[in-house]
């Protein structure tokens, strides 16, 4: 960041519009603002803080110029603002923050004038940058300004660059400077990245799901078993099929032989037997139908049959209860209390009306609930009877139906036996012929074998079907787990990558940090030696605190200030010299130094030394100094000064300075 | 009430399987391959409590043998009205679990689980219902599965069981009595 311009409007003691342009010349990089004590030097540093970060460090928090304020009448509006133009990453930015004050009352108390302003002024903030054409301005969304500023110069670090003389001595004494150093050297970028990667790795680890593995193995084992079994069944089935076909063929063959028989009696007997055989098949089918029908009859509301005695007892009991209860209050048919509770719980009625407790609709519904069972027996009896009637209807002949079906079952069974006997009879006729007898025996044998083979075939076919559906189940399970496992593999790969990048970042980070510490120690010592007259050496500890390596003696404020200067100058020069930059890693940054009365605690001889060093270490130096200090400083600094301003107050008719009307000349 | 999955374990689960057609995936199907007098679990669940009551038989879960059978809530909720009706009958007539007539009257018509007392009451009632269910399973298992060897036996037992019940209870007279009350 390099500062171009600061503008202020009615800001504190600075009346009207004030503008300071900062020197950005690479040789003459110093801008001085010279003023007497209380002239408003500190306000300049605070203008930066307020404009950049909204930090208001004044005791009296009203930022509007008092002169302007005193001239306001009730309802008047006045504005104060600060605007800063700066260059960052080769882009020109302008940030502007303003407060709009409204006068709420104005009155006099004795000879004192009181002007009160609305407590909370309306705040406006804008940040825009110039496109490379040098003309087009692009505003940054209001919500992102704070974040953007933090990226240009983090708020935490700002007091290393914008500070007053009274603060400088404490800088090098802070308990932990590591955050600031990392921030300034942009090591935090690496640190944040490696921390982020750590959480990324954690996240990936949580994504891995290993529960599927054992299931997948089981499914694989199952698939193997079933596939083997399927092949066996297929082989078996083919064998059975061969047998079925063989015996069927044999039976037909013998049938044909019998049909060819010349004996009329045999022929007729065979025809009769074929007819009987067909009839037998029909009856067998009928038999299984009747069985199913009988079970169905048994399953048709059996509770209305087996419950008859209990239903009667319950009805009688209710009749007596009804007599006792007397008058019957009418209620909605078939409604029960839990139905009302349901409506109340969901908050609205079936018609859509809201049922909020205390409202009339709610009370009406609750009134209905009170006449419902169990609270009112009278109507409960009616409801119960309705139900009983409904469930009993159509079951009066439960027993008869079962009886009928059973009789039909018996009859069918008898018919089957009859037909079987008939077939037996017919066979006897066939057996009368000796040749035919032998053929008939063979035919009967073939038929039996056929039935057996067919039964084996059907059984095997069923097992094969089961086996196939098991195979399908296993395959879909494997596919499902494979999907998980592919995901796991991918996640494991991602973890390895993240881990590697994390390690690489950490290594880089540690390496760079070491460079920073060594270099900082070298430079601080170097600068300190140049600024301080005595022989002292300095070490930087693990928290970047600055320590003397020799015995610790009581330090004067002046010595502390020199130490802090040495520290800041070294830090800024390291950032400027881009000591950490590599081909594809640009970490170096420019920072300006904006100081208010920096020499107030420093001996003259040290002022000399500091002034020799500062312009060379920082890219840009802005300092507000007292006239007397400047006389010492200018000896060494003058050749670096690119711009110079005076801070002056207006004088009244008597030549007395007016506190509230300061200008920058 | 009657809106959750229902499951029993032990001996009665096996009885239940012996009596009902088994749908879906039943690993021990082969052990219950006999003739079935009920088309589904739920059919047995609705009628058995009444049979248990009528034969004065209550059952308790007996885990001395392994068994496990149950129905999903959606199967139960489809037949919820019939279940509620059977439940109401039992709650009115079962003096053993509640001798006080007024209290039987109250419990038979309490379906609202709004307050904790009623909720507890309903829980107790369901326990009574289920113990008669187990009792009914025992009765039917003794009558059918333990006596019958083939389809013929089962069908004959079914016929006998219905006829015997009809005669023993003098159902003709009961039917007339019910009709009279309903027509009042």
Provide a compact summary of the structure.
The complex is a heterodimer of chains A (665) and B (184). Chain A has helices at residues 41-53, 66-70, 145-152, 155-158, 165-171, 178-184, 187-207, 211-260, 264-298, 302-306, 308-325, 337-346, 360-370, 377-392, 398-431, 434-531, 557-576, 604-617, 627-637; strands spanning 2-11, 14-21, 30-35, 77-88, 91-109, 112-117, 122-130, 137-139, 162-164, 538-540, 546-548, 592-596, 620-626, 641-651, 657-664.
Describe the 3D structure.
The complex is a heterodimer of chains A (665) and B (184). With 665 residues, chain A is an alpha/beta fold. Chain A is built from 19 helices and 15 strands. Chain B has 184 residues and is mainly alpha-helical. Chain B contains 8 helices and 2 strands, in the order E-H-H-E-H-H-H-H-H-H. In chain B, strands 1-2 form a two-stranded antiparallel sheet. In chain B, helix 4 (80-93) packs antiparallel against helix 5 (101-108). Chain B starts with 5 loop residues before the first strand and ends with a helix. At the A-B interface, helix 9, helix 10, helix 11, helix 12 and helix 14 of A face helix 2, helix 4, helix 5, helix 7 and helix 8 of B. Chain A: This is Nuclease SbcCD subunit C. Chain A: One of its GO terms (molecular function) is ATP hydrolysis activity. Chain A: Residues 216-297 form a coiled coil. Chain A: Residues 5-237 form the Rad50/SbcC-type AAA domain.
Secondary-structure blueprint:
The complex is a heterodimer of chains A (665) and B (184).
Chain A: E1 2-11, E2 14-21, E3 30-35, H1 41-53, H2 66-70, E4 77-88, E5 91-109, E6 112-117, E7 122-130, E8 137-139, H3 145-152, H4 155-158, E9 162-164, H5 165-171, H6 178-184, H7 187-207, H8 211-260, H9 264-298, H10 302-306, H11 308-325, H12 337-346, H13 360-370, H14 377-392, H15 398-431, H16 434-531, E10 538-540, E11 546-548, H17 557-576, E12 592-596, H18 604-617, E13 620-626, H19 627-637, E14 641-651, E15 657-664
Parallel strand pairs in A: 3-13, 3-14, 9-12, 12-13
Antiparallel strand pairs in A: 1-2, 1-4, 4-5, 5-6, 5-7, 7-8, 10-11, 14-15
Helix pairs in contact in A: 5-17, 7-16, 8-16, 9-15, 11-14, 16-17, 17-18, 18-19
Chain B: E1 6-9, H1 11-19, H2 41-54, E2 68-71, H3 73-78, H4 80-93, H5 101-108, H6 116-145, H7 151-168, H8 171-182
Antiparallel strand pairs in B: 1-2
